[in-house]
Design brief:
The chain has 160 residues and is mostly helical. The chain is built from 7 helices and 4 strands; from the N terminus they run H-E-H-E-H-H-E-H-H-H-E.
């Protein structure tokens, strides 16, 4: 969010933040926010400002510096080099294949732990509703998304 000379965000950013706040209040919190691109930073800023109103936050293609502070995401991303990304693009014929990226993402040691943590269950799925949720989650988790080749730039304007 850019800040003007008076210390406030410009009107279009204030409107977007206000609209998001109204939508969350109308929906009832806590909410799960998914922020795509510019909506990613808006969702991140909102979640930081109103943490009790956001249960989960997903950022996709958001212009956010994940190296600003240590996190699960930065720890997982740190060992990935430009050479590895180039190889992933080559293997995907110009695309970053979701199935390749999924292999780089940290996983629990067993699938049951992953399901329990992701669905925030008290233990392994025990009821019919929990088993249905597990089946839906597992189908969703196995679907991957292929993305076009990323073009990354550093602050000096050099292509990474």
């Amino acid at each position: 969010m850019e800040v003007g000379d008076d210390g406030d965000p410009p009107p279009h950013d204030r409107y977007a933040a206000a609209a998001l706040s109204v939508a969350v209040d109308d929906t009832g919190s806590p909410v799960d926010l998914i922020g795509l691109c510019q909506g990613g930073w808006l969702s991140l800023v909102y979640a930081a400002r109103f943490p009790r109103k956001v249960r989960r936050l997903v950022l996709a293609g958001a212009p956010v510096d994940i190296t600003a502070a240590p996190s699960v995401l930065s720890t997982a991303a740190n060992p990935i080099t430009g050479v590895m990304i180039d190889e992933l693009i080559r293997l995907g014929d110009g695309l970053v294949r979701g199935r390749h990226m999924a292999n780089l993402w940290p996983r629990e040691l067993d699938e049951t732990s992953r399901v329990v943590e992701s669905l925030q269950l008290a233990g392994p799925p025990a009821t019919d509703a929990e088993r249905r949720a597990e089946a839906i989650f597992t189908r969703w988790d196995r679907r991957t998304l292929d993305l076009p080749e990323p073009t990354l730039w550093n602050l000096n304007g050099d292509r990474l």
